[in-house]
Amino acid sequence: MEKKEIIAQGRYVLDMEADAIKKVSENLGDSFVEAVLQMFNTKGRIIVTGMGKSGHVGKKIAATLASVGTPAFFVHPGEASHGDLGMFTKDDTILALSYSGESKELADVIAFSRRFNIPLISMVGNADSTLAKSSDIVICYPPFKEACSFGMAPTTSTTVSLAVGDALAMTLLEMKGFSKEQYRLRHPGGKLGALLLKVRDLMAVGDALPLVDDNSLMSDTLVEMTKKKLGCVGVIDKNGSLIGMVTDGDLRRHICSDLLVHKTVDVMTKNPKIIEDENMLAVEAVRILNESQITNIFVIKDGKPVGLLHLHQCLAAGVV
User: Fold this and answer.
1) What is the largest distance, in Å, between two alpha-carbon atoms of the chain?
2) How many CB atoms lie within 10 A of CB 63?
3) 85-118: per-residue pLDDT in tens?
4) Per residue in 138-158, pLDDT tens?
5) Which domains does the chain have, with CATH numbers?
């Protein structure tokens, strides 16, 4: 195949799948509403199942549901027939995927759901199929062709199923008022987790805070700075309010033979840059640090320091 032919083939597949998703979207109706409400009201978990390529899509749907506030897991229909049906309870809802609706491996799952009255939602391409006729709720796709030349390889059908699964998950997210904070708790690792970290998750607190009072000498300040190893010291008044900050830069600017006997208030930077919201995203705090060309920033509540955020802490956590 020449370059133009390769691109044309790729566009053919993408356009066909995009058109199918659009067609499903235009035909979305009561069954989708019923499925969402059933899943929303499920006291247990959503058990997703499917065979072959539908199974692979089902795993992704289950993972997406679970990550955005709807507890779910995937059960392979073959394994279900050999003991995994024990994972199903009457409080659960089953979501079964099969474009033909005739995957024989789903027979035991269907029978079990009917015997124990476990709600069964199906996503199929044939409303007259065995799976559809056995289901309580049927999301049936309008007719479309698979994207392969012989019309058999699961392509368009699996793309549509994946998209409908996303639509279910995101609608449930909105209905449940699932927050960014709840999302972060489910994604503590990797780049995504780092981007959702808050200042309070990284800041030094309590005894780790480098603080001296406004009557201290620079000898005391240097001891505190060295002990806490954060490259700065906050200066507080008798009420505990932050009035200044001494940094490595301040030391260099005021270096002299008798620096240690100077009063800290004479060396400190008055009214330093601060953060007053410990719930600020760390990535936003890093932006403030970068724009202000500083490496440390105190977190203040009611005028008093409750934390100190260091740029290195953010970098170590993957916040950039």
Assistant:
1) 92
2) 16
3) 999 999 999 999 999 999 999 999 999 999 999 9
4) 999 999 899 888 888 999 999
5) 3-178 (3.40.50.10490), 199-316 (3.10.580.10)
